[in-house]
Write a structure and sequence with these properties.
Blueprint: E1 3-7, E2 10-13, E3 18-25, E4 33-39, E5 46-51, E6 56-58, E7 66-70, E8 76-81, E9 90-97, E10 115-116, E11 120-125
Parallel strand pairs: 2-11
Antiparallel strand pairs: 1-3, 3-8, 4-5, 4-9, 5-6, 7-8, 9-10, 9-11
Length: 126
């Protein structure tokens, strides 16, 4: 069974850092595109960053502060979040899809991803 499991969320003060991890399990072959999304209550799930074998993409709001990476086994996806801001608060989800790389025009569209984790909460206080 294909599973994505997030960890690393928590509560921090603005300006601090957190590192999120997503463990990939059960895929017959590695996803071609993986991403992080975040969601706050009452709003849609927004793309934060994505990565494939060739590129990474970031939302403007996190560019320069967040770094997405994937290990060589393609089973551990991470999101290093530095200089956190109150507006980074939300539930962060790991997402994956197969048979299609990440593209700048759709990396942040939740409907384009087939597999999701349960999410991990990040709360940043100002």
């Amino acid at each position: 069974q294909k599973q994505l499991t997030e960890s690393g969320g928590g509560s921090v003060q603005a300006g601090r850092s957190l590192k999120l991890t997503c463990t990939v399990f059960g895929f017959n072959y590695a996803p071609d595109c993986m991403a992080w999304f975040r969601q706050v209550p009452g709003k849609e799930r927004d793309g934060v960053a994505s990565i494939d074998a060739w590129n990474s993409h970031y939302a403007e709001s996190v560019e320069g502060r967040f770094t997405i990476s994937l290990d060589n086994t393609k089973t551990i996806l991470t999101l290093q979040m530095n200089n956190l801001k109150a507006e980074d608060t939300g539930k962060y989800y790991c997402a994956a899809r197969q048979n299609k790389y990440c593209y700048a025009y759709d990396f942040n569209i939740a409907e384009r991803f087939d597999h999701w984790g349960q999410g991990t909460q990040v709360t940043v206080s100002s």
